[in-house]
């Protein structure tokens, strides 16, 4: 019964959604999967990178367009907000229940897209950060933790499988989100005004920007290559800045409305088991490793144990190694293998889709496997195999050709199964170590490791990539003929830094005028990053190796006896 003295939303609270006798527990996972599919579209963020980095130029980046590094950080802020919301909302979840939290998550995630849409249409980057990054990220965190403790209580006999089912949805979000976003972008996009071929238009360069001399005066333009123009069905040449539309703002609005509706419907399907419920005929089996406890650790006490912080490192470094790559996946495969005829825009889009597929499948398979081989051994597999695969990526990138593309593809896909598997296995790992009393809240606090990784991963991959890119441009520029440079870019070689900052000079542009036989450095831009990621997995391996059962002094009956009585 609802407390008549409570608030207007009391009907959403845990005590009012207790499942009746004979309730089928298999009705809960579909609702969890639906919410996670919606919020899991965050993994399709890299699909937004190209349109957001040419929002003004549309066919190519204009001088005032947002850079890739500034756009990538929107994804990072969303992940940071996810971890913080999960950390603070986990304890609240244990109090109010999954339905209440799910409704709030739907409001924040859907509303975040709408605010982001306003930011894109007004070209105010801070609004995209606020909407998608901060508010949407908070919705991500609350939506992510909302079903975890509930599913563990509904499926005490298969903890790994249960959490794997829900969190599988999060990994699969991009499987639906990526093609949906691509379809919406194409639906709403509009080609900019075409002025003519590059040689047929009078162009001048001022302050690093390109301008066209027209009868009505100078107007800012971009010069699109054949590949860039083909995206809009146009031809190579000069296009007017600000005259087209990438469709990103309208796509954000459509997604915000759609995700809100689906998540609200799913949240109202959540139910919690009554106190003392267990599956019919189920008898807990003794742990063979000693890591599965029948005791409980209070949420506040968990942070005082070394096990919590060891698992924090395990999750953080596993996520860091994968999240940076996910954020720039589409860009990376284009830069490394863009010279192959096979790597078209459709191929790159499919690559993002397959990341989601393997991320999703890995969550279910690895989490289910952990029910049999144990959580600790599962993470050992992640770190040993993952280290070898990350080290192999520079090899494939340097080899070039279709065979190398296949090797790169397989290596990254296996990595993403383990990336997703780490997320799906960690709730069951926590339940094994700390018990089920406060596992939802403890899981929420551990997700601050995800927030940290959301900064470390993209920072490492963008910083090291930009460092490699700047060095490569400087090296190529030292080899070109100054006269050819001035003719190509409309400015002398002495203005190189200014031209690079304005995106007028690129590696691709320089490769058109370097001496024959010069090696294109694009494929090696990510090598240093991959070696750094492999080193992080080695550290995580030793952290996982050190995990032991929690000492008796931390058990709830010794630290919070009142909590035992309340249970």
Structure described in brief:
With 567 residues, the protein is mostly helical. It is built from 24 helices and five strands.
Question: Can you characterise this structure?
Answer:
Helix content is 63%, strand content 4%. It contains 24 helices and five strands. Helix 3 (68-96) packs antiparallel against helix 18. The chain is elongated. The chain starts with 27 loop residues before the first helix and ends with a helix. Residues 1-5 have low confidence and may be disordered.
Features:
567 residues; mainly alpha; five-stranded antiparallel β-sheet; 24 helices; 5 strands; 63% helix; 4% strand; disordered N terminus
Ends distance: 19 Å
Arithmetic mean of pLDDT: 86
- Strand arrangement within the widest β-sheet reads 1-5-4-3-2
Number of strands: 5
Query: Helix tally?
Result: 24
What are the SSEs and their pairings?
Blueprint: H1 28-39, H2 49-52, H3 68-96, H4 98-121, H5 125-145, H6 148-154, H7 159-171, H8 173-188, E1 194-196, E2 203-206, E3 209-214, E4 217-224, H9 226-230, E5 237-240, H10 248-267, H11 299-302, H12 306-327, H13 329-337, H14 345-373, H15 375-399, H16 402-434, H17 439-446, H18 448-477, H19 482-489, H20 496-501, H21 507-511, H22 527-545, H23 556-559, H24 561-566
Helix pairs in contact: 1-7, 1-8, 1-10, 3-4, 3-5, 3-17, 3-18, 4-5, 4-10, 6-7, 7-14, 7-16, 8-10, 8-14, 12-16, 12-18, 12-22, 13-14, 14-15, 14-16, 15-16, 15-22, 16-17
